[in-house]
Amino acid sequence: MRRWDFVAAYLQGDLEQNEVVYCHAPPGFATVGADGRPRVCRVEKPIYGMAQAGRRWQRSLFPWLLDF
């Protein structure tokens, strides 16, 4: 096999154990908490468009390819 085409590959990576990433709340969610402070969301898995997403997926895929 010379070529593989992955759909939504960026969603398959994992963040490193001590890596903490936050993002703004998506449209339709409360952006201000009851205490008046802005709300953010903690990201548990890489999401498309995130700067680290490609590298995280590559780190998940590369060891598997070496064993293949």
Give an overview in words:
The protein is α+β, with helices and mostly antiparallel strands. It contains one helix and two strands. It has one helix at 53-67, and strands spanning 21-24, 40-43. The mean pLDDT is 79.
Topology:
Layout: E1 21-24, E2 40-43, H1 53-67
Antiparallel strand pairs: 1-2
Order of H and E elements: EEH
Q: What is the radius of gyration computed over CA atoms, rounded to a whole number of angstroms?
A: 16 Å
Q: Count of DSSP helices?
A: 1
Mean pLDDT metric: 79
Low confidence ranges: none
Share of helix, binned? 10-25%
Strand arrangement, largest sheet? 1-2
Number of strands: 2
Largest sheet: 2 strands, antiparallel
| Proportion of residues in β-strands | 5-15%
Computed structural class: alpha+beta
Annotation keywords:
68 residues; two-stranded antiparallel ribbon; 2 strands; 22% helix
Summarize this structure briefly.
With 68 residues, the chain is α+β, with helices and mostly antiparallel strands. The protein contains one helix and two strands.
